[in-house]
Structure formats: C-alpha cells, structure tokens
Amino acid sequence: LIDSPDKTPLLQLGGGASKIFAPDGQQISEDLPHDQEGLVFADIDLGMISLAKAVADPAGHYSRPDVTQLLVNREKRSPVRSIADAQNEAKQEPASEPSPGTPPNLEIVARSS
Q: How far apart are CA 40 and CA 14, in angstroms?
C-alpha cells in the first residue's frame, strides 16, 4: 500500500477501539494501547445473560410505545438495484408522510416527550 514515502503517515499502526462488554454494560476486557494491534479476550459468564434479559423488560411494564415503535415494510424488494432506479423512485414519491396503511422501511422511531 505504501509505494512512496509520502504515503507512510497515511497508514498508521493501530487506532482501533475493540472492547468486550458484559450484558450489564460493564467493560470486561482490557484496552489495547492505541498504537498496537492485537486480539481482545475476556472470560464471560453466560448466566449473566438471563439476568440482563430479566432486568431489561422492553415489552412489559417499562415499555414506552409513546417513545419507540418498530415499523416493518412487508413489500417484496429486490436485493440489487441500480442507482438510476433509486433516483427515479425518489423523484416520483411525494414528499408527504406515508399513509397509515403503508409503513416505511424497517426503522426505529424515537420521539422526545
């Protein structure tokens, strides 16, 4: 990649920020120094997963449908599209909000209260 001395500063060693977190959000791995490359390892306790799932109750008592909702677009879509097709579709679509019966692509909508 470096075919001239001018490109040497462009390809520095390291610079990543890999970390491993437990289900409770606590960091359980050691940080690599900024200028080193390597692998990050941690011992995990699989029993913590059940505890974290029990505490995070996204569909129960603490559910906030006024803040977050999941919208699913069930229309068939092609996995491969040309940029020209996408631009033509964007030009044809009205700039208004979608009607209640046709949800947009899968997205998470958050509103502040």
A: 13
What is the Cα–Cα distance from 67 to 51, expressed in whole angstroms? 25
Calpha distance 13→15 (Å, rounded)? 7
DSSP string, 52-93: HHHH--TTTTT--TTTEEEE---S---S---HHHHHHHHHHS
Q: How does strand 107-110 pair with strand 68-71? A: antiparallel
User: What whole-number distance in Å separates Cα of residue 49 and Cα of residue 25?
Assistant: 11
Tens digits of residue pLDDT in 54-98: 777 666 666 677 777 778 889 888 888 888 888 888 787 655 555
Residue in the block written with tokens 């449908």: 65
Closest CA to 102 of 69, 65, 74: 74
